[in-house]
Design a protein that fits this description.
This protein is of the alpha/beta class and 291 residues long. Helices cover 28% and strands 22% of the residues.
């Protein structure tokens, strides 16, 4: 019997949130469609997935978010008009939004019951025990300046396939901010950028005095298919929501191998106005569009 696991190709991107931290910008448009420099936030993260070899994107969405799906759909009239006018650069940019290898599927999250619940909404779209990635689109992860060839998500995907271990991307945050994140416990190991270490546990939004480290989960995961069964039985946790962090903690308790990967690049939290502005200014300058 062939017991080989399916190849890692699928990525789940939850886009059902209300975007309250970006109000009033996000009142009438999905927060994922807010532009960062020259393209919507969601396009940045889909491009990150493709760069890591993940071409099957599952959007967990809700009513009022159809603009996200429309963005990746063909627009024949616009393409035809650009072609007639010889605007080849714009035509290429438009077609590059959804290259041929990209496959997008949408599934609805009927009720906002937490990140863990959102991920589980896509369970029926995976093969039995199929590994998958998760990207939280509020946070952009960009390569370090001058090192565009190192894609952190691609490094994680390769490590996961080679070692058959779940991977959780982390970065170090100030102690006074640990209560805003999921914090991992690697037994005191000093993780250098680009390095991994086995996780002993993970706790959601601990008080600074109780935090096992300053390594925070930043919204990039490579997970085994069996975590879907754990999510199905995970009770509400912090905030009264079903937390992905709690299911990962249970996976570790049951003997699953989960590794923390300390990112090499940079993060931009575009889920709130100041972080979104910072991303536009910094990335706009790097693109030569701002002085």
């Amino acid at each position: 019997m062939n017991t080989e696991l399916p190849a890692l190709k699928k990525v789940i991107i939850p886009v059902a949130g209300l975007g309250t931290r970006l109000l009033p910008i996000s009142k009438s448009i999905p927060k994922e469609m807010v532009p960062v420099v020259d393209r919507p936030l969601i396009q940045h993260v889909v491009e990150e997935a493709l760069a890591a070899g993940l071409n099957e994107v599952i959007l967990v969405t809700r009513g009022g978010k159809s603009a996200i799906e429309d963005h990746f759909d063909c627009h024949y009239e616009l393409e035809s008009e650009l072609e007639k006018k010889g605007k080849t650069a714009l035509l290429k940019a438009l077609r590059d939004i959804a290259p041929a290898e990209l496959k997008i599927t949408s599934v609805r999250q009927g009720r906002a019951l937490g990140l863990g619940h959102a991920i589980h909404c896509a369970a029926h779209l995976l093969q039995p025990n199929e590994p998958f990635a998760v990207i939280l689109p509020d946070v952009l992860v960009k390569p370090a300046v001058g090192d565009d060839s190192l894609i952190d998500l691609a490094v994680m995907a390769k490590a996961s396939q080679e070692r058959q271990a779940a991977q959780i991307m982390v970065e170090e945050v100030p102690l006074e901010r640990v209560d805003q994140y999921g914090i991992v416990n690697c037994g005191g190991v000093e993780l250098q950028p680009g390095a991994t270490a086995p996780m002993l546990s993970v706790v959601e939004k601990p008080a600074p005095a109780d935090a096992p480290s300053r390594l925070s989960v930043i919204g990039r995961y490579i997970l085994p298919g069996e975590i879907m069964a754990l999510l199905a039985e995970t009770p509400p946790g912090a905030g009264g929501e079903i937390q992905l962090t709690d299911a990962i903690a249970e996976l570790i308790r049951r003997g699953g191998v989960v590794e923390a990967y300390r990112m090499h690049g940079r993060t931009f939290d575009c889920g709130y106005v100041q972080g979104w502005l910072q991303a536009n200014m910094q990335l706009g300058k790097e693109a030569g569009l701002l002085e």
